Structure formats: C-alpha cells, structure tokens
C-alpha cells in the first residue's frame, strides 16, 4: 500500500490571523463555513476541503446563538454553573464579560486585553494559553439560563426575574428508571462549548469559569467526544456507543420550516425576551455497554428498529427511508417492534413533536466494578420542552426496550436566549 | 501541528480510493469470506452458486423486491427447514449462517411470506461430513419438558411461600416477614425471564420504585420491601418515610397474591411450553439480571438482600444451561468447557458470602473490592454464555 506524500502544508491560520480575517468581513455570518474552506483549499487536497476545516469560524453575534443549528462539531465541553450570592448588576456584569470573552475565543483570539503571553510581566496572563497556535476549529459557545436563576429551590427571587420565567422552562418530571445524581443535575447557568478540537473546547470552559470566579462556580461539567447527531444534511450520520447510527431522523438546519416550528421560541409563546432563543435539555445517559455487547445482533437491531450496518428501518429501504410502522413480518407481528426505539421516538408517535439533537459520546474512565463509564451525553434543543422533550422521553422511559441498557444519571433544562447583536451580550433581552 | 489531522484524513481517503481501485470486483460465486449471495427479487431467488463445500456456510440475503421476504435452505425432501431468515424488509440484507453437511438441499425465497415461495433451486453440498450431533429433536423436546416442569415447580413454591410471607406481613409480624422476604423471592428470581415473558406481570410483581412513572401505581415485592425495611428520611429523598396503614398493607398484599396466582395460572395453562432458544436465552438473561441489577445493589435498595437474588439467578441460569448443555457440547465442546469452569468458579466465589439456607452478607456490607471480584466473575461467565443460543440453534 502506498501512502501518498502529504502536500507540504502552508502554515495554518493562526488564531490572531483569523481574527484579522473575521474583522475584515471575509468570514462574515453565513459565509463562515465557505470562508474556512476557501482558506484551507491552498493547503489541502480538494477532497479534504469537502468537510469543514480546522480554520472554520462561526460568528458569535447573530439573531440566534451559534451552536444550535450550526453543523455539529466533533467535540464538546459542557458546563453547568451555580450563581453566587451576587446582585443583579453583578450578574449582568458576568454575562457581559462572558459574551466578550466568547466573541474573542470563537474568533480564535485569546481572551482579555493582553491575551496569553503579553501584558504586565508581574501579572498572570489574561488567557490561560493552551489554545495558542490553534485555530478556532469551529468553536461555538452557547449560554443558557436554568429554572433556579429565576426562582431558587427555596422560592427566592434573587434577581427579580421570577415574573419573566417562561412557562416553557418547566421542572422536568421524574421519568421511569431515572437514577439521577444530584451533583450531575440542574444549575443556574450553562455553557455548551463545541469545537472540532477538544483542547479549544476545554480552553473555552476553563477561561469562562475563571472569569466567573466569585460570581458563579462550576456545578458539574462533561466532556464529549464524537458527535452522535448530524444537524445538516451534508454531514454523515455518526454512531453512538451502541454501534448504531444515531440521529438519522434529526432536525436538519436545511429544514427551515421545521427549525422555525420546532426549535426557535417566538415572542408569541409568552416570554418575548426568548424570541429567537430555544430550550436546551441535557441528559447524561450511562450505557451499560458490557451487557449490550453480549446481546445478539438480532436483539440489538430489534431494540433499535434499524439495521446496524446501513441504519435502514426494519421495514426496509436505506438509512433515510421513512419507517413503515404498519409493515408486518412473520406471524403478522410488526417488522418494527412496538417497543423499538425508532418507533417510540418517531414524530408520528409523539403528536408530531421533534427534537434537534446535538449529543456526544462520553467515556469517563471506568467505574469501580471495572466497567467503562460510558454513554451518551444527550442534548436536545426545542421550542417547548413540555410539548417536545417531556412527552417523548416519557413515552421512551415507559416503553423503550433499550431502557434495559440505559441509566439516566444527569439532567438539566435551560432557557437559551437569542443571540447578541454585534457588541451586545447574551441575556440582554432579559436583563438589559 | 494544526493541519496534521486534516492531512492524515486526506491521506486516508486517498488510500481508500486507491485500495478500492486495486481490488477487482469478485465475479466468483463466493467472496473471500466464503459468503454466498442471495438476491431475493419480486420474481426470482438468485443464489450466486448451486454448490458449496460442507461446513459453515453464510448466505447473505438481499431483498431487492418490494415485499418483506424470507429465505430458506431446505433438506432433500424439500420440506424440512435446515436454516431460514425471515422478516427481511425491502432493500435490507441479512445473513444466514448454517452448518451444512454434504447432501442435497433446496434454496427458496418467499416474498410476501406466504405460499410455496419462488425460485426454488437445487443446492448441493459436497465434501466431508462435519462433526455434528445427529438428530437432536429428542434432546430438544426433553429439554423443553424438563424446563417447563422446573418453571411449574418454582412458581408453585412461590405461591405457597408468598402466602406464608404475606400472612406474617399482614399480622404485623415484621421480623418474620423480613426473614422470609429474600428466601421467598428466590423462587421468583430463579425463573424471572419467564415472568417477564408475560408482559404486564413482572412490572406489577417486581418493579423497583425508580422504574415507576410519576402518577403510576407502584405495587409488588419492592413496595412491601420498602415498608419492611423503611429508609431514613435522608435515604428517602429528604422526606420521612410514612409506613403503610393496615388497610394499605392489605391492599398491596392482596395485589401481590393475585398477581402471583396469575403467573401460576399462566405457566400451568394446557398449551404452555417453551422453545429451546427461550431456555438458553433464559440462562443468558438471568446472568444479565445479575450484571445490571444485583451486582450494583439496585435491585434490593432497602433490604440489601441482593446476594440472595444473585444466588437464585445463578441457580436458575444453571438449570436452564444444564437443560441444553449436552446439545451444545456436541457442537462446541470448548464453549461448554469454558462455561462449566466459569459457572463453578462464580458459584464458589459467591458461596464465600453465604447461602440461601444460612443467609448472605448484605450488599451494603460488601467492600468495593469484594463487589468487583463478584462483578468480574459475572462478566467472565456472561461473555461465553452469551454465545449459547447462537451455538444451540446455529
């Protein structure tokens, strides 16, 4: 086998270099992806340019926050925060500082006035430095507000926000089989950092939590490798740790009617400050992969309702064929079983409700019994969790044959406000 | 550094293209892995070859028609089924793996799953006889008869044991009831996959609190467990546990008694029988019960009697395994040797913690190292055991 000699690469786009480009408008909104490719095309064979390059930059400012319909990046660092005993003005200050830092980092620039290696010699650097020399790698930073920001567990209205809590920001009910750990649940604020480079995603959370010290502290966080959903039709459907394609029927950015109907909150929904925002559900789902791996191929496929190789629905066709839930097999039994995952999760079984899924595989070492602590860090975006995630998950939790191999251990729901306009900050519509 | 991953990916893509360019499309009847392809279309059943050598044959069946199809390998009488795949949806491929002896066979597809099938063709297997057990039907029938008798015996004991347990519980003799709780459940745990096969019964008899949806009713053994082994407020999510009133005790006792009686009637129905793969899957399923519920202490969260359940699951798995052991041994003696050894090893490890007669160590008294040792034993047995059904019916 002959390994082709790599074409000598032009030095990649530095984080500072990208800022210059972004500032010059070359990588403006909507052109981010194309811009990244154009830059990389000099260095890479044409075939490689078909996928987003490491230099991809997604603008931080815009009508919606990035990181929702943005093509799902490969890596995740998710963090949930508790807000300290601070004033409303201090909370506003935190959100302003976060937005300013996020705008810099998503452009591939270090945070602070001086960055990582400049500034007063006797002071610690503004930026922690591990993302120096790395491109933005498609970094998006998405902020959310949890129910407890509006009303504390003890009913206190700390920031005068209780009246503006959207009705869609519900308390998630107990779902059958839930084994939630308090320390992996809830949070006043959340940040989803996604990138194609894990170090860039970690750098973002690290610097944002540093900025927050004294105002908010990390409650829990999660690293994710390997996206388990596609959010655009251009992406290949990835696989989860059960080895099956996941997210075949996900909402895709190109389905603008569906996105408008199912993902973006509207001022008509009750909370006008959420217009253009969405609601984020996160579930840390442990998979008992050791027992799954001892399950026959026949049972695995029957549980999912799709073939493992192609990902075709059991009723026939190829991956993107619509499942035919009426199709009968031997003995008149449905080809796609009544308790199969694909049937129970399908919009037709859930009054048309859909989710935009954006989950990631995780492996957090192993547990004390020598089993991989592995699973799916499920993230979904929807316009109204009470009408979308809750009924769908209730249906799954009660009936899904897959539950035998799943343990929901972490959970949270956050209102994700609309994007900030240039120079503004996320949360301005609520607190500004 | 930063462009390396992309370059590597680009290199890999080129390499792949080069590879697929170099390897000619096989026009042979079987590919390198010995796979025979079957194209089941709406009007034909095209098999890539009509001859093969004895041993393991893989038929890769692709449904190119527009109806759900089936593929059969039939014996020389054209009736007896040697191997089959069913429920192959349009566009879907599925493999049939069979151990074929030298002889004459027929291949046939059945789009629409009814009628005689189409494209029936002769298929010849030549070569040496493969070492296989002879006619196993008698052994299979005997295994099913024995296992059904075992199920009936266990459920019969469960009915009387549950009565005795509930009498003590209703009389307010909680100490006696606590003593009977785990040993009575053993009759259920030995045949749990059977109860699960009846759909609604297992949830009503054996659901844990966490399994129940908000607003749904929680009944059965674990409801009573919580009442007999009441949690502290801290263990109960921060709220004090309220003991059941005597009326409530009567309600849950009557419900458990009635549901157990339903199970008894179901397994004693005239037409009740079990298939051979249900027996071997029962053995596999019982070990998975241990792996997912008992070894983690999730099953008996209030009484901590998980090791009693573990022992009963293991005994039930042993009985199911022994029922099919000889049939499997003829096909794969090495697998049977491994399973025998690992069963014995796990039984020995568990016996260090007690027995059903004398009682076990409570789960919350086990050290992490002890739990890990037990878990390792479960994994060691479960892995080869998971191949039991495929070997049995293959």
Terminal CA distance of chain B reads 51 Å
Structural class of chain A: alpha+beta
Query: Helix count of chain B?
Result: 12
**Overall morphology of chain B:** elongated
* CATH fold-level label of the largest domain in chain B: A middle domain of Talin 1
CATH superfamily of the largest domain in chain B: M75 peptidase, HXXE motif
CATH architecture designation of the largest domain in chain B: Up-down Bundle
Strand content of chain A: 15-25%
Describe, in plain words, how this protein is organized in 3D.
- The complex is a heterodimer of chains A (432) and B (394).
- Chain A is an alpha+beta fold and 432 residues long.
- Chain A has helices at residues 15-23, 32-40, 88-106, 147-150, 198-212, 256-262, 289-293, 297-304, 341-345, 389-399, 428-431; strands at residues 75-83, 140-145, 189-195, 216-227, 278-287, 356-357, 360-366, 372-382, 406-416.
- In chain A, helix 3 (88-106) packs antiparallel against helix 5 (198-212).
- In chain B, strand 10 and strand 11 form a beta hairpin.
- Chain B has 12 helices and 11 strands.
- In chain B, helix 2 (137-170) packs antiparallel against helix 3, helix 8 (276-294) packs antiparallel against helix 11 (368-385) and helix 9 packs antiparallel against helix 10.
- In chain B, the strands form 3 sheets. In chain B, strands 3-9-8-5-6 form a 5-stranded mixed sheet, with no helix packed on it. Chain B has a 4-stranded mixed sheet with strand order 2-1-4-7, with no helix packed on it. Chain B has a two-stranded antiparallel ribbon with strand order 10-11.
- Chain B folds into 2 domains: 35-126, Immunoglobulin-like, CATH 2.60.40; 137-393, A middle domain of Talin 1, CATH 1.20.1420.20.
- Chain B is elongated.
- Mean pLDDT of chain B is 87; it is low at 1-28.
- Chain B is an alpha+beta fold and 394 residues long.
């Amino acid at each position: 086998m002959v390994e082709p000699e790599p074409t000598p690469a032009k030095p990649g786009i530095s984080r500072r270099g990208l800022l210059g480009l972004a500032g010059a408008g070359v990588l403006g909104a909507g052109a981010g992806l194309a811009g990244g490719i154009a830059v990389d095309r000099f260095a890479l064979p044409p075939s490689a340019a078909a996928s987003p390059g490491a230099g991809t930059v997604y603008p931080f400012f815009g009508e919606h926050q990035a990181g929702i319909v943005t093509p799902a990046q490969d890596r995740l660092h998710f963090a949930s925060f508790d807000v300290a005993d601070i004033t409303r003005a201090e909370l506003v200050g935190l959100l302003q500082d976060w937005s300013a830092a996020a705008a810099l980092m998503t452009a591939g620039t270090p945070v602070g006035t001086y960055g990582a290696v400049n500034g007063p010699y006797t002071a610690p650097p503004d930026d922690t430095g591990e993302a120096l020399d790395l491109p933005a790698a498609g970094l998006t930073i998405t902020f959310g507000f949890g129910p407890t920001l509006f009303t504390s567990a003890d009913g206190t209205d700390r920031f005068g926000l209780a009246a503006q809590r959207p009705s869609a920001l519900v308390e998630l009910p107990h779902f059958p089989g839930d084994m939630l750990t308090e320390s992996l649940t809830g949070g006043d604020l959340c940040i989803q950092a996604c990138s194609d480079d894990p170090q860039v995603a970690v750098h973002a959370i690290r610097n944002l939590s540093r900025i927050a010290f004294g105002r908010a502290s990390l409650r829990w966080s999660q690293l994710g490798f390997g996206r388990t959903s596609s959010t655009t039709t251009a992406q290949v459907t990835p696989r989860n740790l059960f080895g099956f394609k996941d997210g075949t029927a996900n909402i895709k950015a190109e389905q603008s009617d569906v996105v408008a109907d199912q993902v973006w909150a509207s001022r008509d929904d009750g909370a006008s400050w959420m217009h253009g925002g969405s609601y984020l559900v996160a579930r840390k789902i442990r998979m008992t992969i050791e027992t799954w791996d001892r399950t026959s191929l026949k049972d695995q496929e029957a549980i999912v309702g799709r073939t493992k190789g192609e990902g075709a629905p059991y009723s026939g066709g190829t991956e993107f064929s619509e499942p035919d839930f009426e199709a009968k097999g031997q003995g008149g039994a449905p080809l796609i079983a009544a308790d199969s995952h694909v049937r129970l999760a399908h919009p037709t079984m859930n009054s048309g409700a859909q989710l935009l899924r954006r989950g990631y595989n995780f492996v957090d070492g192993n547990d004390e019994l020598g089993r991989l602590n592995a699973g799916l860090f499920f993230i979904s975006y929807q316009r109204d969790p009470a009408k979308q995630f809750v009924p769908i998950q209730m249906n799954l939790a009660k009936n899904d044959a897959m539950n035998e191999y799943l343990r929901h251990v972490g959970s949270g729901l956050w209102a994700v406000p609309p994007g900030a306009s240039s120079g503004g900050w996320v949360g301005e519509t609520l607190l500004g | 550094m930063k462009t390396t991953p992309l370059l590597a990916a680009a290199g890999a893509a080129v390499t792949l293209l080069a590879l697929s360019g170099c390897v000619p499309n096989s026009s042979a009847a079987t590919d390198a892995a010995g796979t025979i392809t079957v194209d089941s279309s709406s009007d034909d059943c095209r098999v890539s070859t009509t001859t093969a050598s004895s041993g393991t044959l893989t038929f890769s069946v692709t449904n190119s028609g527009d109806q759900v199809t089936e593929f059969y390998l039939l014996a020389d009488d054209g009736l007896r089924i040697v191997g089959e795949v069913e429920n192959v949806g349009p566009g879907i491929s599925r493999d049939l793996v069979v151990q074929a002896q030298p002889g004459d066979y027929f291949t046939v597809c059945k789009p629409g799953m009814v009628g005689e099938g189409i494209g029936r063709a002769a298929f010849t297997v030549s070569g040496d006889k493969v070492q296989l057990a002879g006619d196993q039907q008698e052994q299979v029938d005997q295994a099913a008869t024995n296992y059904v008798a075992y199920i009936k015996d266990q459920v019969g004991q469960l009915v009387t044991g549950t009565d005795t347990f509930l009498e003590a519980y209703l009389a307010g003799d909680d100490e006696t009831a606590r003593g009977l709780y785990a040993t009575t459940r053993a009759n259920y745990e030995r045949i749990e996959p059977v109860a699960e096969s009846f759909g609604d019964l297992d949830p009503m008899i054996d659901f844990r609190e966490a399994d129940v949806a908000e607003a749904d009713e929680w009944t059965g053994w674990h409801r009573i467990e919580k009442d007999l082994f009441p949690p502290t407020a801290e263990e109960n999510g921060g709220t004090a546990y309220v003991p059941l009133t005597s009326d409530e005790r009567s309600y849950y006792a009557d419900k458990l008694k009635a549901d157990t009686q339903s199970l008894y009637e179901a397994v004693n129905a005239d037409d009740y029988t079990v298939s051979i793969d249900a027996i071997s899957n029962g053995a596999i399923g019982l070990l998975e019960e241990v792996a997912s519920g008992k070894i983690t202490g999730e099953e008996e969260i209030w009484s901590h009697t998980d090791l009693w359940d573990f022992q009963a699951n293991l005994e039930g798995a042993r009985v199911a395994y022994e029922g099919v052991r000889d049939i499997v041994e003829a096909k794969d003696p090495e697998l049977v040797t491994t399973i025998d050894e690992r069963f014995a090893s796990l039984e020995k490890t568990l016996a260090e913690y007690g027995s059903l007669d004398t009682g076990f160590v409570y789960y919350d008294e086990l050290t992490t190292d002890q739990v890990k040792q037990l878990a390792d034993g479960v994994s060691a047995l479960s892995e080869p055991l998971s191949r039991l059904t495929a070997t049995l019916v293959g």
